[in-house]
UniProtKB/TrEMBL annotation:
It comes from the Eukaryota. Keywords: Leucine-rich repeat, Repeat. Gene3D superfamilies: Ribonuclease Inhibitor. This is PRAME family member 12-like. It comes from Lynx canadensis (Canada lynx). InterPro entries: LRR_dom_sf, LRRC14/PRAME, PRAME. Belongs to the PRAME family. GO terms for biological process: negative regulation of apoptotic process; negative regulation of cell differentiation; negative regulation of DNA-templated transcription; positive regulation of cell population proliferation. GO terms for cellular component: cytoplasm.
């Protein structure tokens, strides 16, 4: 019968062994598998870099999830791990370790071996000897890391990793998420040249780019053929003869993203007057989420969007900040009808919508039975329309988050919120909710005061009402 070693005893054994690093290294060949993670954690915490290097060479698991222990190890610890990998890469025998994972994940691995659950295993004998000493060379080693490119230059640890990877051919540097905040495009290209771009699943650009910069980035984006989520923020469109060339580069590469499911574009100035051809031509696969915010689109753009085949399965739609005040209600109505069967989150904030627009979409809205979030705050709606809106959405059982503007009757002729009128509107809306007889919470937000810019948020349910300031 195999007995289970108490976690506290394993921890004490690991600490005792590390008192003499040479002894600890010599013992690795005969160390029980269950002691490896605990010893590694103690060696990392105690900065026993010599032991870390030796443990990487003898690691008895296929994966070393270093990122689950620390977001990025200190420089000497990372160098010790990389030196250990170099020893493996130089071997002519097979080794067990296949993946070094530097992402902030895989915490369950370490918690399992630190006491939450300790696997039963023999306490004597060589560890995974057969798998460590199989004949034949090993294939490429894979290193997983999430790239967050924030500054003009890489932080020291990431820069060291990139330099190390650049010199190793039998290595796959894989990244599932690339986030860009402020690095020059030339530096970005140098980093991406080392990455297996087919591994990338998410790309986020949170930095103001010129259209020419997007054009230079486009070839790399096109090679990220498995990307499922793309976020672009603040792409400026200069008035130049090369504008069409850069747009062409981007759209041609977007065609290659056949697994794209979530697309978010904030302030995409280059889309203006282009949406009518951009979406149908560049988005061939069905999207789950689409966000186009804070840019100027035409009514024909919106009409084209409503007919785009790729939106037929949308779960999330955000068109906040698009100026729809002068548009006919018809394109918005058709758009909502197209997505009614699948839509879960619908956000139409600060679009200049009036009663006429909302009246047009009420029938389609009442058929959005998967809807969970609905926000039209920042628009101009009357109390009568608000009542109709609440009644039309009463049958949507999944709806849990509703954000509305304070009714127009709550304001003075100068556009300033009137406390008495606002209180009356609250009471009327609460009465409607009670009349509907279903547990429900709504949020009301006023427009910013034209003098001080403050807002008020109103949270109500059929049984409790509170008013609070939101600055």
């Amino acid at each position: 019968m195999v007995t289970r070693t108490p976690p506290r005893l394993l921890e004490l054994a690991a600490k005792s062994l590390l008192k003499d690093e040479d002894l600890a290294i010599a013992a690795l060949e005969y160390l029980p598998t269950e002691l490896f993670p605990l010893l590694f954690m103690e060696a990392l915490a105690g900065r026993c870099d010599k032991t870390l290097k030796a443990m990487v060479r003898a690691w008895p698991f296929a994966r070393l999830p270093l990122g689950g222990l620390t977001q990025m190890p200190h420089q000497k610890a990372l160098q010790a791990v990389l030196d250990g990998l170099d020893c493996l890469l130089a071997r002519k025998v097979r080794w067990k370790l296949r993946v070094l994972d530097l992402r902030n994940a895989s915490r369950n691995f370490w918690s399992m071996w630190s006491g939450a659950r300790v696997h039963e295993c023999p306490l004597t004998g060589p560890v995974a000897e057969d798998s460590l000493r199989m004949k034949g060379p090993s294939g490429p080693l894979t290193v997983f890391v999430d790239l967050c490119l924030r500054e003009r230059t890489l932080d020291e640890c990431l820069a060291n990793l990139i330099r190390w990877a650049r010199r190793r051919r039998s290595l796959h540097l894989c990244c599932k998420k690339v986030t860009i905040f402020g690095m020059p495009i030339q530096n970005i290209k140098e980093v991406l040249n080392l990455v297996q771009l087919g591994c990338v699943l998410e790309v986020e650009v949170h930095f103001t780019w010129q259209l020419s910069t997007l054009g230079k980035f486009a070839p790399y984006l096109g090679r990220m053929s498995n990307v499922r989520r793309l976020v672009l923020s603040h792409i400026h469109k200069p008035s130049s003869s090369s504008e069409e060339k850069h747009i062409g580069r981007f759209t041609s590469q977007l065609l290659r993203l056949r697994h794209l499911r979530k697309l978010r574009m904030e302030s995409p100035a280059f889309l203006e007057d282009l949406t009518a051809s951009f979406l149908p031509r560049c988005l061939k696969s069905p999207l789950e989420a689409l966000s186009i915010t804070n840019c100027q689109l035409t009514e024909s753009d919106l009409a084209c969007l409503s007919q785009c085949p790729s939106i037929s399965q949308l779960k999330e739609l955000d068109l906040s900040g698009l100026s729809l005040a002068c548009f006919s209600p018809k394109p918005l109505q058709v758009l909502l009808e197209r997505v009614a069967a699948t839509i879960q989150d619908l956000v139409l904030e600060y679009c200049g919508l009036s009663d006429t627009h909302l009246e047009a979409i009420l029938p389609a809205l009442s058929h959005c039975h998967q809807l969970q979030t609905f926000s039209v705050r920042g628009n101009h709606l009357s109390m009568a329309l608000m009542e109709r809106l609440l009644r039309h959405t009463a049958g949507l059982s999944r709806l849990s988050l509703e954000l509305y503007p304070a009714p127009l009757e709550s304001y003075s002729s100068q556009g300033i919120i009137h406390p008495g009128r606002f209180a009356q509107a609250q009471a009327e809306l609460l009465g409607i909710l009670k009349d509907l007889g279903l547990p429900r919470t709504i949020w009301l937000r006023t427009n910013p005061c034209p003098h001080c810019g403050s807002k008020i948020v109103y949270d109500s349910d059929p049984f409790l009402s509170t008013v609070r300031n939101c600055h």
